[in-house]
What does this fold into?
Amino acid sequence: VNTFDIIHLHEYRTFQNIIIHHYARRYGVPYVLQAHGSLPRIGSWRRLKWFYDVLFGYRLLRDASKVIALNQMEAEHYKNMGVPEERIAIIPNGIDLSEYANLPPQGAFKRKFGISEDKKVILYLGRIHRIKGIDLLIKAYAYLIKKMGNKDAVLVIAGPDDGYLNEAKALADSLRVSDSVMFVGPLYGKDKLVAYVDSDLCALPSRYEMFPMVLLEAYACGKPIIASNVRGLKELIIDGETALLFEAGSFRQMAEKMIYLLNDVNIALEIGKKARLLVEEKYSIDKVVNMLEKLYIEVSNI
It folds into this structure.
């Protein structure tokens, strides 16, 4: 540690941070901390998180030369934990656009999973957890099929099970849409790209988000998005231009946004183009690396 000029700590409540904090203080090495959305005491182990904060966390934040927030929402989380505003730097996640420069041709994903060429694909990519709004997505899809009469789309849910897969499948069964709701498991690399390419829209129905990479990925692929209006998503979206927002928790509104994009290809294409321009302008990995380098220089000169 004493040979380092600066240390960059990732996440917040980790054993490694406790150890590095000790030695960084001993040898006078400055560090920056990037919580990646892990500050709020939500989900499981809330009491244990509180104990960590009291015993280690507040000191970890206090002694950081700078902390990095992904957006204004996370900056407020830091402030609520006692970090003064002048020590908070807002640096978003970035994406390597070179990975999206030559997208695979259309059709591979549909062929692999036996989806008819004339079917449209509504794609969800992410953890299968209740906080991600999977239940709302399935209800919106059932509403789209049964109440709005759109039977031309299939719903593809791709991602690792995080404790909600069985409930999600049971919900699709109970709503009698299981024949057109596909759970395809996690997708990585080229498999993920072909899913994006064959999708007609991407859905982010989350109840809570900080800064999902899937949104930047869909942007990079030029895909239209419908998303809940939770704050972590609202900060990344220009509503009506780079994506369409709906009231969080409202599956009917979600279905209305779905059918709007499915029925108007030109608007869907225009939204996808503007999304691609936005990710190039603000979220390319080169721009984010430049921001980090400037922060490192600032901290090393303090």
In short: DSSP finds twelve helices and ten strands in the chain. Residues 46-63 form the longest helix (18 residues). The mean pLDDT is 96.
